[in-house]
Structure formats: C-alpha cells, structure tokens
Amino acid sequence: MLDFVVCVGGIYVCFLTWSALQERVTTAAYGADHQRFRFTIVLNLLQAMAGSLVGFVYIRAIQRKPMLQMTKHRWKRFFQVALLNSTASPFGYMALRYINYPTMTLAKTCKMVPVMLMNKVLYRRHYPAYKYAVVAMITAGVSAFMLFKSNSKKGGIEAVENSLYGLFLVLINLAIDGAVNSTQDQVFAEDKEITGQHMMCLMNLCSSALMALWLLNPFNPELSSALTFLYSHPRALVDIGMFAVCGALGQCFVFYTLASFGSLTLTTVTVTRKFLTILISVFYNGHKLNPRQWSATGLVFSGISLDVYMKQMAKQAVVK
What we know:
- The chain is mostly helical.
- It contains twelve helices and no strands.
- It has helices spanning 2-27, 40-62, 72-95, 101-107, 112-123, 129-147, 156-190, 196-215, 222-232, 234-261, 263-285, 291-319.
- Helix 1 crosses helix 11 and helix 3 packs antiparallel against helix 7.
- Residues 152-161 have low confidence and may be disordered.
C-alpha cells in the first residue's frame, strides 16, 4: 500500500508541475514578436529523450540492475508501443489551438473509455457492470461541459466549430492512448521480465528514434524551424527543459504504477490528478467556468468516486 501512495504522490507532484509547463510552452507568446512554439514533434522528441535517459539512470544507478536482454520480439513490441505513443501526442498538442487547457484536460478524463474499449477489442478483457455506469457518467459530464461552454470573443458559431474540432482531435488522441495502455498491459502480461522502468527506458528510446527519423527527413522543415525559434527565444528553451525533466521524473512513477497495478488503476490516478490540474489552470490563468460547467465537472468526478468506491468494496469482499 505504501508504494501505491508514494506513486500517487509522485504522479501528482510531477505532473501538476508538468501540466502547468505544458500549457505555458504550447500557449505562451515568446519574445517581442509574440511567437508561439508550435513544433510538437520536437517537443515530443525532447520529452522522449529525457524519459529514456532518466529510465536508464534509474535502472543502472538506483536499482543497480543490468539492462533487459533484447530479442527481436521484444524490439518489435517496444517499437509497436512507441509508434502508437508517438502518434497520439501531436493530436493532443494540436487540440490546444482550438480549445483551452481546462476543456482539454476534462475531455481527457474520458481516457477510461478507450482503455476499456481497446482492452476489450484487442485483448478480449472483461469488466464488471458498474464500470459501464462509470464510463456513462464521465462521458455525459464531458459532453455537458462542452455543450455549456461560453461563447468566445470570436462569436458563438465559430467558437462551437473550433471547440468541436478541438474535441475531435482529443478523441483521436484518447483512442490511440487507449491502444497504447492496453498494449502495455499485454506486454507486461506476456513477458514477466519486463519492468515498468524497462518500458519507460526502451519505449522512449524507440519513440526518440522514430521521431528523429521523421524530423531528419529533408522535406520536413520542423527541426530547423524549431532550432531557429529556440535561438531567437531562449526563454522557451528553459521552459521546455523544465517540462521535459518534470515529465521524465513523473514517468518513473507512472511506469511503476502501470507495471504493478495495471492501466485502469493508473488511469484512475491520472484522471483525479487532472481535476487538480483544471482547478489550478482555472484560478492561476484566469479561465472562466460557468455554473453548468461546474455541475458537469461534478458529474465527471462523481463517476470517478463511484469507481474508487466499488473497487474498495470489492477488495473488502475478497478479504472477508
């Protein structure tokens, strides 16, 4: 139980900081020319490189264990997870261009839906009936939150279109994330030698290789444009560095939780963390939520509370 509490605390602290830095990096206007950092693949590459390095240091320096002996099948599985993971993130960053951060964060509390769906479709896993009630409450709350969104300064119709398109991008991100988590569960189930730290180090290493190949494509100007931007706006480099370090440290707790307790438990932890992220973003950055949006938020987290309560009741029944 103590290791679970430590993991939850580590995830909260690291990713609350990470989320604030993510919002700043993706939405802040840097320099006198007020330019935004829009190079999402470069941002993901730096995050993956930091995650792989921290995972390697954790295995070798803290755990003092040898690296995993790699086989062709293991490389295939890690590259499979890395490809899915590398594909998911850009959709989340693109969504921030059309919806504000609290909206995206609350939408991503639906992550239990794709995790359950992909586990069921891809790997034939089954869930108790109350899980479907939890999913229904969360989905209804998110839909209501979007429906009751206040009109922006650009006008009602355009704001709705932008919001729906942003939500569509988030849904793509969630669907791919669900495939990532279900595949990670399957990797741990079929190969007991793989630990959470191995997954962290090697998945991020494979992700770095895939994104580096994409950025080094001579027809892709993103890498050179990003380097030019960072040279002209050094403040952005500081923010991105802090963002990558916080994300890498948080991943240590995430992958330990994933390997030890499974993807649904991890998703429940990260979803409750997102509620604190919403509150911090709302109060710190001046975002406005109307009363109906607060009611929708309450419905979402009522579903989460039901999930936690039913899990606790199931554990007590097993003990008896």
